[in-house]
Amino acid sequence: VQLVESGGGLVQPGGSLRLSCAAYGFTLGSARMSWYRQAPGRERELVGTISRSSGTTDYADSVKGRFTISRDTAKNEMYLQMNSLKPEDTAVYYCARTGGVRYYWGQGTQVTISS
């Protein structure tokens, strides 16, 4: 199992960014997948989850209405579309396979919101 994130960068407040997570070694659509983030000096927190079969999504209150998780099963990729970004969204973002006995994590991608 391998997860590779991409798409991070520096964005001004109010801007948008789309993160990608490429999955290797398993079929992404058969697993519950999540996005997490960790800001400096803070614990890693759950951003949102997409269920394995129906693709139902759920989000943390802090990002609800601004972030959207989706997936492309043909490409075996998951995405995090982030709109109306705020400075407090600055963090390293991780994708994870969270269904099953253990979690699998990507290496993370830095997102910085600053003017």
Q: What report would you give on this structure?
A:
This protein has 115 residues and is mainly beta. The protein contains no helices and eleven strands. The chain has strands at 2-6, 9-11, 17-24, 33-38, 45-50, 57-59, 67-72, 77-82, 91-97, 104-105, 109-113. Strands 2, 4, 5, 6, 9, 10 and 11 form a seven-stranded mixed sheet that branches. β9 and β10 (104-105) form a beta hairpin. The N and C termini lie far apart (37 Å). The model has no long low-confidence stretch (mean pLDDT 96).
Largest sheet, in brief, is:
7 strands, mixed
Could you tell me the radius of gyration in angstroms?
Answer: 13 Å
What gap, in angstroms, lies between the N and C termini? Answer: 37 Å
Number of DSSP strand runs = 11
List the secondary-structure elements in sequence, H or E: EEEEEEEEEEE
Unreliable stretches:
none
Helix/strand/pairing class, anyone? mainly beta
> What is the residue-mean pLDDT, rounded to a whole number?
96
Helix content: under 10%
Backbone shape: globular
Share in β-strands: over 45%
The total of helices stands at 0
